[in-house]
Amino acid sequence: MVKKMISQLSALAVLIVFLVSCSKQSEYTNVIPSDASAVAAIDLKSLINKAGLDDKENEAAKQKMLDALKSGMNAATFQQLEKVIKNPGESGIDVESPFYVFTSPTFPYATVVAKVGNESDLNSSLDIMLKEQLIQPITETDDYKFTTMNGSLIAFNNSTFMIVGVNGTTQTEEAKKAITNLMKQTSDNSITESGAFQKAMKPKNDVNFFVSMMAIPEIYRKQASIGLPTNIKLEDITLLGGLSFEKGRIVLKTENYTENDEVKAVLKKQQEALKKPNNAFAKYFPASTLLFFNAGINGEAIYSMINENAEFRDKVSIAKAAEIKDLFSSFDGDISGGLINVTMTNMPTFVAYAQVKNGAALEALYKNKKNLGLTNGQDIIELSKNEYVYKTKNMNIFFGVKEKLMYATNDELLYKNIGKAEDKSIKDAPYASDIKGKNVFMAINVEAILDLPIVKMVTGFGGKEAKMYFDLASKISYLSSSSEGEVGEVDLCLKDKDVNALKQIVDFAKQFAGM
Question: Who's near 321: CB < 8 A, 6+ residues apart?
Answer without folding.
Answer: 307, 313
